Amino acid sequence: MLKQVNPLLTNNEIPLEILNTVEELLENKDIGRNGYISIILTPVQDDTSDILEELNLDHTLVRIPDNNFLQIDIKNKKHPMNENRRWVSYDLEFLDRQGKVYAIYSMKTVGE
Description:
By secondary structure, the protein is an alpha+beta fold. The protein is built from 3 helices and 5 strands.
């Protein structure tokens, strides 16, 4: 569904590589009963605290597994959603074992 709506977003169009990552997560990962995938379009400054704030999650309710960051390379370097950004994904586990949140987000790169 995102792939169908995406062309209408013009300068905020989500890069195809991000949509492919979402599709792959939905096909290959068990997100659990209360799990979900979140695409955060606004660049974050600090991985953990900003993402938890964006997702409105309390840090005492989730666990962040070690070394689960995935860099997502966007081929079109001139894409408006790729300028001076690097895209990353990682997962958070709800402590009650009711699911996972896969957060896909971007961070500003050095030199801005």
